[in-house]
Amino acid sequence: MTAIFDSFSLNKSLVSASESESVNEPGTLGISASSPSSSAPPTISPSTQRRLWQLNYQEAAIYLQEGENNDKFETHPSSQSSLPGYLITHNSWMYLLDLCAAILLMSLALLEDPAVSILHSPVWVHTSLELLAFAIIVMELAFRMKWLGPKVFFSHVRSIIKFVLLVVMIIEACVVMVRQMSHFRVTRALRPMFLLDCYYCRGVRRFVRQIIQSLPPILEMLSLLLFFMLLFSLLGFYLFGHLQDGFFNTIQLSYVSLFILLTTANFPDVMMPAYSTSRWSAIFFICYICIELYVFMNLFLAVVYDAFSKQEKNKLKKLLIHKRRACQFAFKLLVSKENPSLLSLRHFSGLMKYLMPNKSRRDVYLTFKAMNKSKTGYLSLGEFHAVYEMAHLTWKCPNFSSRIFCVIIVQSIAKHPTLKPGSSIFYFFFSDVVIFANFLWILADTISISVLTLFLRSFIQASFSVYSLEVCLKIVGLSPLGYFRSGWNIFDFLVTTGAFIGLMLQLVNHTLYFVVLLRPLRMLRLFKLRRSFRDIFGTLLIVISRMVSLAIAMVLLYYSFAIIGMEVFSKYDLRNCCVNTSVEDFYKFSPTADLGGHYYLNNFGDLISSTVTLFELTVVNNWHIIMEGFVQVSTEWSRIYFMVFYLIIMIVMNVVIAFVLEAFLFRIQYRQKMHVENMEGECKKYLYLDCRKGRSNPYW
């Protein structure tokens, strides 16, 4: 540790010597500080030189942030006058305000008509909150326009969309405030656009953009599927139109029946009337299901996977190139005129002061050393390209002097190759046998197969002691920081803690004995013993961050369709709505008797009810019954809403499958190509060996 700060003292002493270094080329922020010309003058005062370097450090940090956030370089601050707007727009407090305004705007649907009964409020209340949210968004847009300038601002598609929506929605809110009455406001369905534009939802925004960019081949395949559906509907109309079954009496009914049949929700009901008149009619339905469901739907999945994976690879390539360009722009601003091809530690530290201001001087130095593979004391452009990966590393210097003698002994025993927890096959075998036996005994006790209650309780307590001993040995042997770096260790710790709470509650005769059943969840560790199970869990870990973005996108999609559904269908009451129809029994209602169906509860009376209804439509089972209910109380055109929702959900669900397939294939192919059995262990081993090979100082 002393050597680190000695080296910093040395570098600090070199700062005065390096003050004579002149800026290689001033950035857009430094041009006005030096001269109107594009380069620094031959003689510059030391104070001006220091200011030029500080402006270059700040601008280089901005370039690197633009590379990481995938922002276009056309939006880079063009002068010092645009810098305050940029800094305010990219301030964490402004990010938080923008996010809160977008969430507030979307949550107003709970208060606006049709509102949730317990949250119903006067018009002026939710309209005032809406205008407050708009005021925050307008403030953010004003700072953005100050930073970009009107020309660049209105050349950005997302900014134009946000501006137009803001103007329209503010006018609508003012009209509602003046009239003190809500009107038909389907534009509320576009409120998620403001949340998508937030900084914290940039992952969701990229995901949605990627889906939109993948749409052309997907829509072509979807058109082919619907075209064949139209051909079969025409054939069905001519073959079975004479039957009075309500399925094929018109071309429209024929098409709707076959659309529902694509989801298998009405099979075999749609076939049975025709099948009762002629057994040969089954050929029509079998051919339709085989072609549409088993051929075209699987081809549809293949097209979605191919289009999405291509977009994913193109996106990663473009993002890598974008980051490289950002590094090149930043590097030019950080090197001196005397040494235009190498970056010194001093200027790297100046960059980090703006890029990651919370990073300590020691961490900055170690990051520089980790990037400096050539060990020359200067970074080349190729080494500087690793700044995105290395800048986020954290460093820890072990404090050996604070360790107790007994802890060192226990740790040395625990780190023995044959005794170290988590590295010995005998340890794994013993621990997993205890977990499996504990699960069987608890299961036997739960279903009252065994009467040896006292023995069971003693065995459960003994197994818990083994679990606790395992956790303690791992924490001592690996250190707390090393222990909690593993997801499986965190899982073990949480389950063991829950089991301890369950035992304590059991001792005081508490009824929460089911908490003890958390311990058998540790059986999930048994899946690590097989490669296929490790691949499954590894794939889940890879896609979990993308799944979060997907889940948020699904919530936003639900919100938009829920708003449209409330505006169109909230006025309809589905109780006893379908008299003398095939779905009559599902909507029967009587205040004095329970008649069964309860499908009248699937309505769009408020945001919560609408979300539940849309989720039932997503599950597909009997979704056509919900659609038929609204068709009976409204018009045939209402089918468009439900069919469009199903098609969009079908595309999204196929994207989910494409996610999982891509991640699983990547993991398998990487393991085969790199000849790696345990990817997590190999990554840790590689980082450890890399640090060992790069040790050029005794404190490395």
UniProtKB/TrEMBL annotation:
Annotated Gene Ontology MF terms? monoatomic ion channel activity; voltage-gated channel activity
Membrane-protein topology:
Multi-pass membrane protein
> Which spans are transmembrane here?
93-111, 123-143, 163-182, 221-240, 247-268, 280-308, 425-444, 493-516, 536-561, 640-665
**Where is the stretch described as Disordered?**
21-46
Q: Does the keyword Methyltransferase apply?
A: no
What do the Gene Ontology cellular component annotations say? endosome membrane; lysosomal membrane
Predominant location: membrane
Which residue range or ranges hold the Ion transport domain? Answer: 124-314, 425-664
Query: Has UniProt tagged this entry with the keyword Aminoacyl-tRNA synthetase?
Result: no
Composition-biased stretches, type Low complexity, lie in: 31-46
Q: What UniProt keywords apply to this chain's record, in alphabetical order?
A: Membrane, Transmembrane, Transmembrane helix
Subcellular localization: Membrane
On the tree of life, the source organism's domain of life is: Eukaryota
List the PANTHER family hit by this protein, alphabetically.
TWO PORE CALCIUM CHANNEL PROTEIN 1 (PTHR46474), TWO PORE CHANNEL PROTEIN 1 (PTHR46474:SF1)
Name of the protein: Ion transport domain-containing protein
Naturally occurring in which organism (per UniProt): Capitella teleta
